[in-house]
């Protein structure tokens, strides 16, 4: 992945809690964040004693390289937010500048934590649909603002493959949001849900409290099927 093609935009632990309806018990689980980018979720939860690992292709780059890319795209994103302000709900965030300051705070926390997190193995260069982990290595896998949001860039089969892989490595999977960049429910969602059910998983769409992008009110929660024990197959 070329860093020049990445638009880094980090979210905080508080936003993760709201987006994924995370309760205190969830935060005691062994968590995998898929596509976390420069979010401060890992840094904040680790500092609070949590167990979390983040994967993203951009983790092949240094903190300074990521910082420079953030500085390049930050004013561009703020300008875009201002132009499309009618597509958002301005309750939690008051205006585009408030969004920008919150995001920059989260990204600065990430950048401060990133070097030691790399050394500790908490930030892993990897991306869906191939994760370098064992079956059921995690209790909970989260994916924020990647699947479904980029439905034009990622086709139906890529969504299915990504979610099946998350279900392989985690007991439960949660994805937010379920709308595309246009604010409409992703056209991939019905078929993805069917494919997950056909694979033996238990998908459900659930309302969350997080409100920012209009139309983004729900997450997908998937309770993964128990892995097949080869000793029970008779082979």
From TrEMBL:
Gene Ontology biological-process annotations: methylation
Transferase listed as a keyword: yes
Keywords annotated in UniProt: Methyltransferase, Transferase
This protein's record includes keyword Transferase: yes
GO molecular function, a single term: methyltransferase activity
UniProt name for this protein: Class I SAM-dependent methyltransferase
Taxonomic lineage: Bacteria, Pseudomonadati, Pseudomonadota, Gammaproteobacteria, Cellvibrionales
